[in-house]
User: Which sequence fits this backbone?
């Protein structure tokens, strides 16, 4: 990506608390500018070590909050499309 001059990365996919989080953090650490698309990412519910169930929505939202403004700019698809349209 550096060879081609890319600086911005748009991140979508599964799972917010694993692959998405790791990719976003590494992209920022490597000097790229990640945009994490909140409605184009998701995760699964999980059982905590004390038996409490955490819903997919809870886990997703907590991870987005943790990444926003520290490792990425979190936005939805409509906002990203508005940015793209304003540049084209």
Assistant:
């Amino acid at each position: 990506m550096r060879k081609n001059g890319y600086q911005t990365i748009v991140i979508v996919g599964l799972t917010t608390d694993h692959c998405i989080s790791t990719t976003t953090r590494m992209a920022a650490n490597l000097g790229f500018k990640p945009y994490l698309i909140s409605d184009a990412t998701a995760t699964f519910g999980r059982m905590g070590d004390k038996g409490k169930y955490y819903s997919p929505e809870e886990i997703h939202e907590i991870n987005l909050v943790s990444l926003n403004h520290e490792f990425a700019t979190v936005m939805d698809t409509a906002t990203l499309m508005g940015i793209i349209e304003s540049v084209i």
Remarks:
- The first strand starts at residue 8 and ends at 14.
- The domain at 8-87 is CATH 3.40.50.850 (Rossmann fold).
- Helices lie at 16-29, 56-67, 77-87.
